[in-house]
Amino acid sequence: MKISIIGVGLIGGSMALKLKAKGFASHIYGVDQNENHLHEAKKLGIIDEIASLEKAVKNSDLIIIAIPVDAAKKLLPEVLDLVTQQQTVMDAGSTKSGIVNSVTNHVNRNRFVAFHPMWGTENSGPQNALSESFSGRAAVICDREHSAQDALKTVENTAENLDMHLIYMSAEDHDIHTAYISHISHITSYALANTVLEKEREEDTIFQLASTGFSSTVRLAQSHPEMWVPIFKQNKENVLDVLNEHISQLRKFKSALEKENYDLLEDLIRNANKIRGILDK
Amino acid sequence: MKISIIGVGLIGGSMALKLKAKGFASHIYGVDQNENHLHEAKKLGIIDEIASLEKAVKNSDLIIIAIPVDAAKKLLPEVLDLVTQQQTVMDAGSTKSGIVNSVTNHVNRNRFVAFHPMWGTENSGPQNALSESFSGRAAVICDREHSAQDALKTVENTAENLDMHLIYMSAEDHDIHTAYISHISHITSYALANTVLEKEREEDTIFQLASTGFSSTVRLAQSHPEMWVPIFKQNKENVLDVLNEHISQLRKFKSALEKENYDLLEDLIRNANKIRGILDK
Q1: Do A247 and B251 touch (CB under 8 A)?
Q2: Is the dihedral of CA B241, B243, B248, B249 positive or negative?
Q3: Start and end of every Prephenate/arogenate dehydrogenase domain (chains A, B) (predicted)?
Q4: Which residues span the domain enclosing A202?
């Protein structure tokens, strides 16, 4: 299968590596606004050929859009303008309502499958791409009833070749769930980094004392705004709901401490401990 | 050197394994209120002998107290009552002002060295102890001027045998810094777990969608209240300061989103990204 990867960064690059390794991709066209990324991806064997958007789309069975969600929302209608009823287009974005709504009335809407692989790191760029990044993880397909059966099947095969297991839901539900289990983690982590940077002016002390727990909690704070501002923007209402809930949960800890109510503090912690059973499943 | 480990859990157990492996400990007495932990530690070769507090302290050159900080604060004066000017006592607690203040006027204060190895996980118990847990990490010694030179030397040798590098500071400074780079991470993580548990009643959805980012951020939420309530209690003022700052940082994200001020949102994220330079050092 000939595949276009639009956005040869961490996500697109990791997909390309795996789909090639599996023999699912016979030829990969790379499209990116970032020339350095394109040449790096070519050098690393992530893509076979650097191509224009038009050439890549024209010659591909499958077009994978793996760029920031604001750019993806803008680009998808243009890509759908170019495809025939024999081609399939999928994305890889962390928000789904925005992109599906951008093509609701497009004549080729049925060629698009809304896809979200549940994996990412605080790093970006093709140099961080790994063929096994997605193995064993979940991927979400949204609003499958709006995709043609054969397009859906192509994306399901792609997910299988990425060694991912699929979950189906509406774009709306997806955006609520990801606000809770992904987007809020990033805001928390950013705010924690800012808290520490604000007060701990002596950088050496942070560096020397920073324990494994701290590193784990602020790891996501290294994630780039180019990717995350558009996500927060597209999922604003859900993220605000969760952020309000999170602030109110933090206030409970504050109140328990201020009132020296250590029984309440213990209850709050015991409740949080229940996450262990869920993470371990 | 004969060593008593009081509290044969994750921290005490990991120290024992390493100090034996290095040949620094010739015989290890284990003392614990938890009979199961004692027998487990004996079975795992973490300790050589189960002993009463009195017998263990009497026969040891070095006594390591590795129990929750409230219990340690209570036990330390009793241990100092039992030691001679030839013995050394150290702790491993995450707060330092409480324990040093508990023995300010003790006749054997000079035999105590306040110690904090900057490592831990969300797990506990001797079954999770690993000999290499501390390797390459920082350890803090507080208020060294209140310890006898030979006691200080013994603890410095111990840290060296744990392959840790030492940082010296006052107990007061320690408690401010750890509020920022450890204690707040735990509160954030607990509150995040509670936020998700509150709203995501469908546990299967959390499990299936939970990405690596989420797991990383809530990892610490699995930490037990037996250890953490006493830490928050002893470091209440500092933790409240940081918690207030953290809530105010989260409010900035909230305000940027509510006002759709995406330039501010980007600035907040770019500032948080600076943590990369510090974590990478």
Answers
A1: yes
A2: positive
A3: 1-281
A4: 174-280
